[in-house]
Amino acid sequence: WDLIWFGFGSVIGAGIFVLTGQEAHDHAGPAIVLSYVASGVSAMLSVFCYTEFAVEIPVAGGSFAYLRIELGDFAAFITAGNILLESVVGTAAVARAWTSYFTALLNRPHESLRIHTNLTSGYNLLDPIAVAVLAIAATIAMISTGKTSYFNWIASAINTVVIIFVLIAGFAHAKTSNLKPFMPYGAKGVFQAAAIVYFAYGGFDNIATMAEETKNPAKDIPIGLLGSMSIITVIYCLMALSLAMMQKYTEIDRGAAYSLAFQSVGMKWAKYLVALGALKGMTTVLLVGALGQARYTTRIARAHMMPPWLA
């Protein structure tokens, strides 16, 4: 159960709230549902690979550990660099999105909580709140894996309540007429969107790194990975469908799709609930990300590809 909730915590974040509107508007139209199906199947194939390796090689370090055994040190070294880069860049992006949703929750202008400097455009907005959120998430992860799991469990439960609300309210205001034309940009648009919304499924590899933390990894990791990803795929498809039925795809806002879709059907207050759900989701993504990153670092340092004292 802990692993299934970890899966929830590490995967369901800002991705679903941000990317759905953007891709429905630009590439897929109402067929965004099919994009999520295609991405979900693709993610599931990766999950099967992780599952097989986690059973054979039940150690911390996920894909790094597997590649080192299969392809040797050179491939593992490149992978280590990629994994750490992905962790740093990915968590930074999520932390910045956290600030954006926090401003939405406070009903303030978009960039009001960032420090404006005279550096080059694109690098001129410093984000102290994002730094603080990352520091807090890392501290909780350092205190204990058990406590992190408990905190993640509570936050994910709140997030689940918000998602259920989004689905019920969305389908209550749904109009089937908004689904026509279903594939305005054809199959090409569906797969273009699928390539982007795949980002919303990212993070499941953090479960595989928990092999040393579980009592029976050969049994627990497959259930945690497959269980959480199956449920998440269904949730994503339903959320995408509710958005597509609530608003015509040409009118969907690219930035805050769900908030403004609820506003358009007269539920202005719902945008705060959506912002809260996204915030909760992003907090758990950062939390489980910090835990996963630590497990990767442990393994990489044990392999002496980083100073061993980091293990």
From TrEMBL:
Record flagged with keyword Transmembrane: yes
Chief location: membrane
Species name: Fagus sylvatica (Beechnut)
Gene Ontology MF terms in the entry: L-glutamate transmembrane transporter activity; L-lysine transmembrane transporter activity
Name of the protein: Putative cationic amino acid transporter 5
The organism's place on the tree of life at top rank: Eukaryota
Lineage: Eukaryota, Viridiplantae, Streptophyta, Embryophyta, Tracheophyta
One GO term describing the cellular component: plasma membrane
TM region positions: 6-21, 33-54, 74-104, 150-170, 182-201, 221-244, 272-292
Membrane topology value: Multi-pass membrane protein
Keyword Glycoprotein: no
Localisation per UniProt entry: Membrane
Alphabetic keyword roster: Amino-acid transport, Membrane, Transmembrane, Transmembrane helix, Transport
InterPro entries: AA/rel_permease1 (IPR002293)
Pfam short name (any one): AA_permease_2
Entry similarity comment: Belongs to the amino acid-polyamine-organocation (APC) superfamily. Cationic amino acid transporter (CAT) (TC 2.A.3.3) family.
